[in-house]
Design brief:
alpha/beta, 8 helices, six-stranded parallel sheet, 48% helix
């Protein structure tokens, strides 16, 4: 429905990714913003808890749980969504943020791991320092109120393409190979 804003979560339904924090934020967000839907792609041990939360808070019509999807289907969702949401308790370099930005999709994420390197400036997303439903919900609402900046998101992801990241590694191995001859 074009009248609805679409949020996307892609990840394991496990404690590290803390999808219940996102659901708490979504519940508050939907209460004062409305017309927002959440698609959660993944699976994991927290799925029964997620389903119970949705039923208890009458969110089963607003949240769609999808199992694991092929990369092409995830890219399709990233190209139609309005925002990727990450509520992780800890991360390294979250690849899903790079993939999201490469699709032109802005990101709201907890300030974990290398997320700060990827989310520079408000046109590509929001970093949430305080891991609370309120802070996450406010950040999502703030992002949804601004016009999309898809080209800026794509530019932000460009230094993290596989070719650019791996070129120094391959260059190093080529140099080692030349030296050993």
């Amino acid at each position: 429905d074009p009248a609805h804003r679409l949020l996307l979560f892609v990840g394991r339904f496990e404690g590290q990714k803390d999808p219940v924090l996102l659901l708490e934020a979504f519940r508050r967000l939907n209460g004062f913003m409305g017309r927002t839907r959440l698609v959660m792609i993944g699976e994991g041990s927290l799925e029964p808890k997620i389903r119970a939360f949705l039923a208890a808070h009458a969110l089963t019509d607003a949240v769609c749980l999808l199992g694991p999807q092929p990369q092409t289907e995830i890219a399709r969702w990233m190209n139609i969504a309005d925002c990727l949401c990450l509520s992780s308790a800890f991360e390294g370099m979250p690849r899903v943020i790079v993939e999201s930005l490469a699709c032109g999709l802005p990101v709201v994420t907890t300030d974990v791991g290398e997320a700060r390197r990827l989310i520079e400036g408000t046109m590509v997303g929001r970093l949430v320092a305080e891991r609370t439903p309120q802070a996450l919900g406010v950040a999502i609402a703030s992002l949804l109120r601004q016009p999309p900046h898809r080209e800026t998101c794509e530019r932000q992801a460009s230094p993290y393409t596989a070719t650019k990241v791996l070129e120094p590694v391959y260059g190093y191995y080529r140099e080692l190979s030349r030296r050993s001859r």
